[in-house]
Protein backbone atom coordinates (compact mmCIF):
# COMPACT_ATOMS: atom_id res chain seq x y z
CA UNK A 1 0.00 0.00 0.00
CA UNK A 2 1.28 3.44 -0.95
CA UNK A 3 0.12 6.88 0.20
CA UNK A 4 0.63 9.85 -2.10
CA UNK A 5 -0.17 13.54 -2.42
CA UNK A 6 -1.04 14.49 -6.00
CA UNK A 7 -2.01 17.45 -8.16
CA UNK A 8 -2.90 17.20 -11.84
CA UNK A 9 -4.18 19.40 -14.64
CA UNK A 10 -5.97 18.24 -17.82
CA UNK A 11 -6.57 20.10 -21.08
CA UNK A 12 -7.97 18.97 -24.41
CA UNK A 13 -5.84 18.97 -27.56
CA UNK A 14 -2.07 18.72 -27.98
CA UNK A 15 0.60 19.83 -25.52
CA UNK A 16 1.44 23.51 -26.17
CA UNK A 17 4.86 23.82 -27.79
CA UNK A 18 6.16 26.33 -25.24
CA UNK A 19 5.14 24.09 -22.33
CA UNK A 20 6.77 21.01 -23.86
CA UNK A 21 9.94 23.02 -24.52
CA UNK A 22 9.94 24.26 -20.89
CA UNK A 23 9.54 20.72 -19.57
CA UNK A 24 12.29 19.19 -21.69
CA UNK A 25 14.79 22.00 -21.16
CA UNK A 26 14.15 22.85 -17.51
CA UNK A 27 12.89 19.64 -15.91
CA UNK A 28 14.31 16.56 -17.65
CA UNK A 29 17.84 15.59 -16.68
CA UNK A 30 18.18 14.25 -20.22
CA UNK A 31 16.19 16.42 -22.69
CA UNK A 32 16.60 13.75 -25.39
CA UNK A 33 15.11 11.00 -23.24
CA UNK A 34 12.28 9.18 -25.01
CA UNK A 35 8.84 9.13 -23.32
CA UNK A 36 7.14 6.04 -21.96
CA UNK A 37 4.26 4.68 -24.06
CA UNK A 38 1.57 2.49 -22.53
CA UNK A 39 -2.16 1.70 -22.46
CA UNK A 40 -4.07 1.81 -19.17
CA UNK A 41 -7.60 0.43 -18.94
CA UNK A 42 -9.85 2.19 -16.41
CA UNK A 43 -13.06 1.01 -14.79
CA UNK A 44 -15.52 3.80 -15.57
CA UNK A 45 -17.17 4.92 -12.29
CA UNK A 46 -18.49 8.42 -13.08
CA UNK A 47 -20.29 8.88 -9.75
CA UNK A 48 -17.26 7.84 -7.66
CA UNK A 49 -14.54 10.41 -8.20
CA UNK A 50 -12.87 9.21 -4.99
CA UNK A 51 -12.19 5.76 -6.49
CA UNK A 52 -9.81 4.79 -9.28
CA UNK A 53 -9.46 1.25 -10.63
CA UNK A 54 -7.31 0.37 -13.63
CA UNK A 55 -5.34 -2.35 -15.37
CA UNK A 56 -1.73 -1.33 -15.93
CA UNK A 57 1.12 -3.39 -17.33
CA UNK A 58 -0.18 -6.73 -16.14
CA UNK A 59 -1.44 -5.57 -12.74
CA UNK A 60 -4.57 -4.17 -11.09
CA UNK A 61 -4.32 -0.82 -9.32
CA UNK A 62 -6.89 0.56 -6.89
CA UNK A 63 -6.76 4.14 -5.55
CA UNK A 64 -8.94 5.72 -2.86
CA UNK A 65 -8.99 9.48 -2.26
CA UNK A 66 -9.14 11.11 1.13
CA UNK A 67 -12.00 13.66 1.52
CA UNK A 68 -9.91 16.78 2.22
CA UNK A 69 -8.29 18.89 -0.52
CA UNK A 70 -5.82 21.76 -0.37
CA UNK A 71 -4.50 24.22 -2.96
CA UNK A 72 -1.02 24.65 -4.38
CA UNK A 73 -0.03 28.01 -5.86
CA UNK A 74 3.11 29.18 -7.60
CA UNK A 75 3.10 32.67 -9.04
CA UNK A 76 0.14 33.86 -11.09
CA UNK A 77 0.12 30.95 -13.56
CA UNK A 78 -0.10 27.91 -11.26
CA UNK A 79 -3.03 26.89 -9.05
CA UNK A 80 -4.21 23.33 -8.47
CA UNK A 81 -6.10 20.95 -6.19
CA UNK A 82 -3.86 18.78 -4.01
CA UNK A 83 -5.39 15.42 -3.08
CA UNK A 84 -4.25 12.60 -0.80
CA UNK A 85 -4.60 9.04 -2.13
CA UNK A 86 -4.08 5.46 -0.98
CA UNK A 87 -2.92 3.05 -3.67
CA UNK A 88 -2.93 -0.73 -3.82
CA UNK A 89 -1.41 -2.82 -6.61
CA UNK A 90 -2.04 -6.51 -7.30
CA UNK A 91 0.11 -8.50 -9.73
CA UNK A 92 -0.29 -11.96 -11.23
CA UNK A 93 3.00 -13.11 -12.69
CA UNK A 94 1.30 -16.15 -14.24
CA UNK A 95 -0.51 -13.80 -16.63
CA UNK A 96 -3.85 -15.49 -15.96
CA UNK A 97 -5.43 -12.43 -14.35
CA UNK A 98 -5.65 -8.67 -15.00
CA UNK A 99 -5.59 -9.02 -18.77
CA UNK A 100 -7.22 -6.46 -21.05
CA UNK A 101 -8.13 -9.31 -23.40
CA UNK A 102 -10.41 -10.69 -20.69
CA UNK A 103 -12.35 -7.41 -20.65
CA UNK A 104 -12.92 -7.35 -24.40
CA UNK A 105 -15.29 -4.57 -25.46
CA UNK A 106 -17.10 -4.27 -22.14
CA UNK A 107 -18.20 -0.59 -22.10
CA UNK A 108 -17.59 -0.14 -18.36
CA UNK A 109 -13.84 -0.35 -19.07
CA UNK A 110 -12.19 2.53 -20.94
CA UNK A 111 -8.83 2.35 -22.72
CA UNK A 112 -6.51 5.31 -22.29
CA UNK A 113 -3.31 5.58 -24.33
CA UNK A 114 -0.51 7.59 -22.75
CA UNK A 115 2.81 8.98 -23.93
CA UNK A 116 4.50 10.22 -20.77
CA UNK A 117 7.64 12.19 -19.94
CA UNK A 118 8.63 11.79 -16.29
CA UNK A 119 11.25 13.33 -14.05
CA UNK A 120 11.84 12.15 -10.49
CA UNK A 121 13.01 14.38 -7.64
CA UNK A 122 14.43 13.38 -4.29
CA UNK A 123 13.44 15.73 -1.46
CA UNK A 124 15.72 16.19 1.56
CA UNK A 125 14.85 18.85 4.16
CA UNK A 126 12.30 20.36 1.72
CA UNK A 127 15.02 20.71 -0.94
CA UNK A 128 14.25 18.86 -4.22
CA UNK A 129 16.92 17.55 -6.56
CA UNK A 130 16.37 15.86 -9.93
CA UNK A 131 17.58 12.24 -10.04
CA UNK A 132 17.44 9.28 -12.40
CA UNK A 133 14.03 7.62 -12.55
CA UNK A 134 15.37 4.20 -11.50
CA UNK A 135 16.94 5.34 -8.24
CA UNK A 136 15.57 4.23 -4.84
CA UNK A 137 14.73 7.20 -2.62
CA UNK A 138 12.89 7.60 0.69
CA UNK A 139 11.15 10.93 0.07
CA UNK A 140 10.46 12.38 -3.33
CA UNK A 141 8.07 13.56 -5.99
CA UNK A 142 7.58 12.82 -9.67
CA UNK A 143 6.72 15.41 -12.31
CA UNK A 144 5.06 14.20 -15.50
CA UNK A 145 3.93 15.63 -18.80
CA UNK A 146 1.60 13.29 -20.67
CA UNK A 147 -0.17 13.08 -24.00
CA UNK A 148 -3.44 11.25 -23.38
CA UNK A 149 -5.83 9.76 -25.94
CA UNK A 150 -9.28 8.41 -25.10
CA UNK A 151 -11.98 7.35 -27.58
CA UNK A 152 -9.97 8.98 -30.37
CA UNK A 153 -9.82 12.34 -28.57
CA UNK A 154 -6.53 13.97 -27.60
CA UNK A 155 -5.81 15.49 -24.19
CA UNK A 156 -2.69 16.39 -22.24
CA UNK A 157 -1.83 16.53 -18.58
CA UNK A 158 0.73 17.87 -16.13
CA UNK A 159 1.00 16.18 -12.75
CA UNK A 160 3.02 15.93 -9.57
CA UNK A 161 2.87 12.89 -7.29
CA UNK A 162 4.69 12.96 -3.94
CA UNK A 163 5.63 9.86 -1.97
CA UNK A 164 7.65 8.91 1.10
CA UNK A 165 7.20 9.14 4.85
CA UNK A 166 3.68 10.21 5.77
CA UNK A 167 4.85 13.18 7.82
CA UNK A 168 6.76 14.53 4.80
CA UNK A 169 4.31 13.82 1.97
CA UNK A 170 2.69 17.23 1.69
CA UNK A 171 6.02 19.03 2.10
CA UNK A 172 7.51 16.83 -0.64
CA UNK A 173 4.83 17.97 -3.08
CA UNK A 174 4.83 21.67 -2.16
CA UNK A 175 8.61 21.90 -2.18
CA UNK A 176 8.85 20.23 -5.59
CA UNK A 177 6.08 22.40 -7.04
CA UNK A 178 7.83 25.55 -5.82
CA UNK A 179 11.12 24.31 -7.29
CA UNK A 180 9.92 23.25 -10.75
CA UNK A 181 7.55 26.19 -11.25
CA UNK A 182 10.05 28.81 -10.12
CA UNK A 183 10.10 31.50 -12.85
CA UNK A 184 7.56 29.45 -14.86
CA UNK A 185 6.17 31.56 -17.73
CA UNK A 186 4.50 29.00 -19.99
CA UNK A 187 0.86 27.86 -20.37
CA UNK A 188 -1.33 28.78 -17.34
CA UNK A 189 -2.32 25.76 -15.23
CA UNK A 190 -5.59 26.72 -13.59
CA UNK A 191 -7.54 25.26 -10.68
CA UNK A 192 -10.65 24.85 -12.87
CA UNK A 193 -8.71 22.26 -14.89
CA UNK A 194 -7.16 20.55 -11.87
CA UNK A 195 -8.62 17.15 -11.03
CA UNK A 196 -7.77 13.47 -10.70
CA UNK A 197 -7.98 10.78 -13.37
CA UNK A 198 -11.41 9.55 -12.12
CA UNK A 199 -12.85 13.08 -12.38
CA UNK A 200 -11.22 13.59 -15.78
CA UNK A 201 -12.68 10.31 -17.08
CA UNK A 202 -16.19 11.52 -16.27
CA UNK A 203 -15.52 14.64 -18.32
CA UNK A 204 -13.71 12.91 -21.20
CA UNK A 205 -16.19 10.05 -21.68
CA UNK A 206 -19.43 12.03 -21.32
Topology:
Elements: E1 2-12, H1 17-26, E2 36-43, E3 51-56, E4 59-74, E5 78-91, H2 100-103, E6 109-124, E7 127-131, E8 140-150, E9 153-163, H3 169-180, H4 197-205
Antiparallel strand pairs: 1-5, 1-9, 2-3, 2-6, 3-4, 4-5, 6-7, 6-8, 8-9
Straight-line distance between termini: 31 Å
The main sheet comes to: 8 strands, antiparallel, barrel
Low-confidence stretches: none
Number of helices, where a helix is a run of at least 4 consecutive DSSP H or I residues: 4
Give an account of the 3D structure.
The chain has helices spanning 17-26, 100-103, 169-180, 197-205, and strands at residues 2-12, 36-43, 51-56, 59-74, 78-91, 109-124, 127-131, 140-150, 153-163. It has 206 residues and is α+β, with helices and mostly antiparallel strands. It is built from 4 helices and 9 strands. An 8-stranded antiparallel β-barrel has the order 1-5-4-3-2-6-8-9. The mean pLDDT is 91.
Task: Note the main attributes of this structure.
206 residues; single chain; 9 strands
Amino acid sequence: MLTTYEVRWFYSGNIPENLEFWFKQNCLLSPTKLPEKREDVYLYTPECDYLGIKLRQGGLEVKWRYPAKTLVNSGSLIEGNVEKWKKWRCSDFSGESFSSEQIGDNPVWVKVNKVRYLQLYTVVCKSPKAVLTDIDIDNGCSLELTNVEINGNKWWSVGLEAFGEDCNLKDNLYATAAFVFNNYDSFPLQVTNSYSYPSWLKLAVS
